[in-house]
Amino acid sequence: MTGGGTTPHTEEPRRGILKGEVAPTGPAADRQTWNRRIWALAGPIILSNVTVPLLGMVDTAVVGHLPDPRYIGGVAIGALIFNFVYWGFGFLRMGTTGPTAQAWGAEDAAEIRAVLARALLLALGLGLALLLVQGPVGALAFRLLNASAAVEGEGAAYYAVRIWGAPAALANYVLLGWFFGLQNARWPLILQVFMNGLNIVLDVVFVLGLGWGVEGVAAATLIAEYAALALGLALAARRLGLLGPVAAGRRILDGARFRRMLAVNRDIFIRTLLLITSFALFTDRGATLGDVTLAANAVLLNLVSTSAFALDGFAHAAEALVGGAVGRRSRADLSGAVRTTMRWGGIAAIVTAAAFAVAGGLLIDLLTTIPEVRALARAYLPWAAAMPLISVWCYLYDGIFLGATRTHEMRNAAIITTALYVAALWSFVPLWGNDGLWLALLTMNALRGLTLAAYYPRLARGVAG
């Protein structure tokens, strides 16, 4: 075993400290080998992402069979609250992958254990904190949403049940990030399919079988989250068993390492908060253009979000492979990982944009039956079709910088681009209306990619040759 120095270049891929995991190294990792590694990671991630919108559709379908539309609205606003809150805690996943991948690349078994333990401790602490402040958080959220009394009542019932799953939901983020960091995308796929599949089954049993209403939908999610956590911990224990009897107790609470973890997660949180704010501003400015425009933009944003599922697969692959390269201090591996993810991400973006251009009208019709919304969404469809071509680069660079744990550059890039985006919104929308709104969003993602691209040479220089 090596201790983190540069791995000798051989004609065979190096097998790491975890049996069955193979990492390409240096010149021996030819283009075909890199392609296999990318798809071994990106493929399962893309498949697991498909289960997320499927679950939302089933949630809507089961309450859609209840006799009053308030049930659909209640689940919708309740789920929106958790999506918003949990998106803010996405740093638990993103901040775990890079350090784990670097420890894996350096063959540091003790640090692999310690990263998982530290991240789970943080997730547990944050989950318990959410339980303690669930009252104020819920009150603020429902005040901001301005739903009808009937819908708010159902949403509150959903929230009151599902909030107790917060510790499990946040811990599951950590487990997903840790498995990605170990170059293993199969187990995250198993976890996601298991959790969402169980959720769907329990939805049907609790709502349609037992008549529990929105509380049944929330209870299904709650149980599925804890069941997935139990399975994830069992899989993690099995993977840790491959490391052998390695002591990591002192590292877990090591002050310097803990502060480093908190700094990384702080930077990611700031960057994520700025992204959330940016999309909120997009919706807010769109609302000033009329209800039909707001609805048409919402339909198109659904298409854009769906495209991000496929592109995120390559960004996650970049996180794992770049982290491994940094851990091995191999600039050749860094170059191979970046070059290959950029190539496949670009191809995926072209395919997605072409699909929107050809079948976008049909997809719009599937999402809405309102004639004026359909017509307006078709008019602005070219903006949604262009979005993957422009946005893929910022997604991929996010993955690269997360894998290298260069999160301060990500934070700084987010601050710069958000400021320019706000200026673009207030300049473009008065001039060009909804076209200006979409141009501002497209500009923001282009600037995110360009600013990170400008930082990239500094990242590459920090990796040994």
Task: Summarize the structure in short.
The chain is mainly α and 465 residues long. It has helices at 31-64, 70-88, 91-105, 109-132, 134-145, 149-162, 166-181, 186-209, 214-241, 249-252, 255-287, 291-328, 331-367, 371-379, 381-403, 407-461, and strands spanning 14-15, 22-23.
List the helices and strands and how they pair.
Layout (H helix, E strand, L loop, with lengths): L13 E2 L6 E2 L7 H34 L5 H19 L2 H15 L3 H24 L1 H12 L3 H14 L3 H16 L4 H24 L4 H28 L7 H4 L2 H33 L3 H38 L2 H37 L3 H9 L1 H23 L3 H55 L4
Antiparallel strand pairs: 1-2
Helix pairs in contact: 1-2, 1-8, 1-12, 1-13, 2-6, 3-4, 3-7, 3-11, 3-12, 4-7, 6-9, 7-9, 8-9, 11-16, 12-13, 12-14, 12-15, 13-15, 15-16
Label the structural class: mainly alpha
- Sheet with the most strands: spatial strand order: 1-2
Helix tally equals 16
What does the largest sheet look like? 2 strands, antiparallel
Question: What's the mean pLDDT score?
Answer: 86
Shape, please?
globular
N to C succession of SSEs: EEHHHHHHHHHHHHHHHH
Task: Indicate the percent of residues in helices.
Answer: over 70%
Strand residue percentage: under 5%
N-to-C CA distance: 20 Å
Radius of gyration, whole Å: 22 Å
- Low-confidence runs (pLDDT<50, min 5 residues)? 1-15
Number of strands: 2
